[in-house]
Amino acid sequence: MSTVSTPFGVATLPYGVFSTASDQRARVGVAIDDLILDLAPAVQLLAPALAPAVAGPSLDTLLAAGPQTWSQVRALLTGWLADGTVSERLGPHLVPARDAVLHLPFTVADYVDFYASEQHATNLGKMFRPGQDPLTPNWKHLPIGYHGRAGTVVASGTDIVRPCGQRRGTDGDITFGPSQRLDIEAELGFVVGTPSPLGRPVDLAGFERHVFGVCLVNDWSARDIQAWEYVPLGPFLGKSFATSISPWVVPLAALGSARVPPPARTVPLLPYLDDSQAPPWGLDVRLEVRLNGHVVSRPRSDGMYWTGAQMLAHLTANGASLRTGDLYASGTISGERPGERGSLIELSWGGTEPLRLPDGTTRTFLDDGDEIVISASAPGADGVVIGLGEVRGRIRPAI
Ligand SMILES: O=C(O)/C=C/C(=O)CC(=O)CC(=O)O
Ligand SMILES: [Ca+2]
Ligand SMILES: [Mg+2]
After folding, report:
1. If both were cysteines, with which of 51, 155, 215, 332 could 44 make a disulfide (CB 3.0 to 4.6 Å apart)?
2. What is the pLDDT of residue 306?
């Protein structure tokens, strides 16, 4: 049973794309409790000037429309829901969530994955590079990341085929075959709306103008393929076979009460990353990772060393442009305590300490048929909980 409740109350209002059996067009929806508001006809009826922004069939147009439109659409929704007479007129455009199929919510442009949790980076450093300093010399000077594969970002619920690849066994033999160390990474994803021109870095304050909202990310990782291939250019096929994202994108506007100061920095930051005078963009998101229904971890993002604003500033510091639909993820979220680690390689300490599940089975890495569900919530104003929904995926045998 899940203990993280992920309600989509009127303080959350996340955006997604859905269809139903009776109307198979993909269209933009807003989740409200266990209902989905079909946004285009509702806006057409009550505020037609904004209708083009939510026309669908994806969130792309809304993302590109920029922060003024984002606030206008959210204000409309909040106003409608507070006004009983309007809520009644919305009735015909509300669909029970259980009747909806949820799709990939936006066209993923570029996909970047960071490495922003000090605890995760320390744990992985110990396992991948024993005998060396777990944190590389650059780690506290810049948010480390790599470019992933946008075309293999998939909607929650998509089955994940166990990848095959090259790996080196303990005997030194190089073989090709199904990954034997298939893992998860529980992460937060930042969805870029407003593009930026080539040659023009986005500063820390630009975060709110360019980033529309957040989703949950499971960056599936084949540790055996990764360990053999990653020197010197970083992750490649060990992470490019599939990355799952949650169907609902929660706007930054819903996360005001979840903002927290990041941990004290132990190394002075260069000016473009120095957020000591800026309003903080650390986020207190509480995740829960379930394997076949059993909770195996409860990571929290409030201790992440690097914030989403710093990641964006670094990502564009060389003048790289942003496109609508760019997705960048935080990197695995791991806390101080063992029960807060966001990957199986950490939870089973490189496979040496198998996890014992309540159904009597044990796991180091994923078995075929295993299902992973990552859900999350964040604090809202006045004790309200902001749900981030969930991202789900089941492992299918290698082909
Ligand atoms: O330290 C390494 O060599 C590898 C690290 C990762 O696998 C982490 C990664 O993909 C980024 C992250 O999720 O934190
Ligand atoms: Ca990752
Ligand atoms: Mg991936």
Report:
1. 51
2. 98
- Beta-carbon contacts of residue 171 (< 8 Å; ≥ 6 apart): none
Query: Is the per-residue pLDDT at 170 higher than 80?
Result: yes
158 with 306, same domain: the answer is yes
Tokens found for residue 377: 């919530």
Atom index in ligand 1 nearest the CA of residue 226 equals 7
Number of domains in the chain: 2
Domain boundary among the residues 69, 102, 135 is at 102
- Pairwise CA distance, residues 219 & 188, whole Å: 10
Q: Are residues 49 and 146 in the same domain?
A: no
Which of 43, 72, 102 is the endpoint of a domain? 102
The overall average pLDDT reported for the chain is: 96
Query: 332 CB under 6 A from ligand 1?
Result: yes
- Specify if 213 maps to a domain: yes
Q: What is the CATH number of the domain that holds 31?
A: 2.30.30.230
**Residues 8-30: tens digit of each pLDDT:** 999 999 999 999 999 999 999 99
Q: Is pLDDT at 387 greater than 70 in this prediction?
A: yes
Task: Please state, in angstroms and rounded to a whole number, the distance separating the CA atoms of residues 316 and 309.
Answer: 11
Structural domain that includes position 20: 15-102
pTM, rounded to two decimals: 0.97
Centre of ligand 2 from the C-alpha of residue 186, in Å: 8
CA–CA gap between residue 395 and residue 229 (Å, rounded): 22
Q: Is 324 in the pocket of ligand 1 (CB under 6 A)?
A: no
**294 catalytically annotated:** no
250 lines ligand 1 (CB under 6 A): no
Task: Bin 382: left if φ > 0, else alpha if -120 < ψ < 50, else beta.
Answer: left
Q: Is 115 in the pocket of ligand 1 (CB under 6 A)?
A: yes
Q: Are residues 43 and 143 in the same domain?
A: no
C-alpha 121 – ligand 1 centre gap (Å):
7
Give me the pLDDT at residue 84, please: 81
Judge if 117 and 75 occupy the same domain.
Answer: no
- The response to whether 115 counts as a known ligand-binding position is yes
Same domain, 270 and 351: yes
Average pLDDT over residues 255-266: 95
User: How far is the C-alpha of 372 from the C-alpha of 63, rounded, in Å?
Assistant: 29
382 Cβ contact list (under 8 Å, min separation 6): none
Closest CA to 311 of 235, 210, 217: 210
Consult the annotation and say whether 243 binds a ligand.
yes
